Amino acid sequence: MKLSDKIIYIFGILLILGWVLYFLLGNFLVQMAYDGKARALLNRIIEGQSVHPPEFYKALVLRFMIKTSVVAFGLCIFLIISLPIFRYLYKNGLKWINIWLVICSVIVTLVPIELLLRHRHAIFKRELILKNENDSLEYISLCPDKKLVYRGIPNKCGNNSHGYRDYGYSYTKAPGTYRILVIGDSIAFGEHINFELTFSKVLEKKLNTSVESKNFEVILLAQTGYSTSQELWIMRNEAFLYHPDAILWSYCLNDPADPIFHNANGELGKYFYNPTSYAFDFIRKRIFLLLEKKKARKCQAQSFDSLMHCVYWDQVEKNIKEIGKISQQNKIPVFFLIHPDFVEGEKFSEYSLSNLHKRLFTLASSSDLIPIDLLDCYKKYKYEEIRFQDPSSPWFDCWHLNAQGHLAVANYLYELLQKYWREND
How far apart, in whole angstroms, are the C-alpha atoms of residue 206 and residue 408? Predict the structure, then answer.
């Protein structure tokens, strides 16, 4: 019997045996693991048992069996094709055989790992959808540009034709109109509140009712979960299509986070990210986290946000200088708004991140931006007066403002803008 025939028989027998075992014991073992009555190893495989019915896990096992069969078939074909190549190389020296064996070993190892990681990612996406913990999935979709990762779906769930949560502003600016763009993440986006109550819309209304000589448009170009790298993409590629007269850059202290490898966006980055190879991306993430851990040893950070600024300060500095450079190139003033964190157990009078604010303020000022430290606005209020808190959740939201908080920021910005215009007209 030829070696290629033996390979086919071996793979065929293993596949048949696997499917027989699946039909005999598959659903039974899934049910046992679901009920917590199987071996400890099997019991740990199924998570979120109170969320999904047993049929969900049985369907996952079936899909896994199908994918495994496809992989086995592919490996079988690969080995059969490799045999004549191996024989040819054998006749031409041992060196080439060793190289070919290394190549085959790498392929045979990486292909199953790649498929396993893709399977895990598919499970993660289904889990996130079924748990429905992030309703942003209803109005956000994958972006073809990998730097942006995801963006709003045009004309869906309150998004305008450009995919942003705002009224439908055209790129063309009407004569006599003063346009202000707001670039930011979920704070500027107005997570958890009606968009008409966001500080951008409140500011727009206040300007139009108090300044008669101009028509003001405050246009919101913000998306929940965005990091500085994504916001820079918006500034470079979209902001100046609107012909703005000024830009408000809404900076949250978690903005240095990586949109993929950190979870500062409610796993939206992980959900929409589609790497070319999940195996190589898995290795890249491990290297990324190891380097981060090494740098973090020199930091005395008390929170995730302060850790991000300690570890990635060079990148923070580079990004803020880039914002200033673009501002100067286009001769458009950029107001750099620094939002404080709500630090659990503290008051703004004893704010532990005040030194970080001063550092960011100095950096923004030296980068030709107009820094505005909103700590001066926030500290006029108690946490419970301006911080959003979901009454149904025990999680302490350290970033988002309620409607009163957005109103306070809008009033504060209104006074500062009026002062700026008086001094620069």
Answer: 12
Task: Residue 218: name the closest of 171, 178, 163, 173 by CA.
Answer: 178
Question: Based on C-alpha coordinates, what's the Rg of the chain?
Answer: 28
| Residue 38 confidence class, pLDDT cut points 50, 70, 90 | low
Residue range 246-269: mean pLDDT, rounded: 89
Query: What is the structure's pLDDT at 118?
Result: 81
Element (H, E) at 201: helix 199-210
- Sign of the C-alpha dihedral, residues 101, 103, 107, 109? positive
CA distance 284 to 260: 11
CA distances from 348 to 88, 222, 341, 418 (A): 75, 26, 9, 26
The per-residue pLDDT for range 347-403, each reduced to its tens digit, is 888 899 999 999 999 999 999 999 999 999 999 999 989 999 888 878 888 999 999
Question: Could you give the domains of the chain?
Answer: 3-131 (no CATH), 136-424 (3.40.50.1110)
CA dihedral defined by 38, 43, 48, 49, rounded to 10 degrees? 10
CA distance 53 to 48: 10
Is this structure's pTM higher than 0.70?
yes
Contact of 184 with 252, CB cutoff 8 Å: yes
Contacts of 44 (CB under 8 A, 6+ apart): none
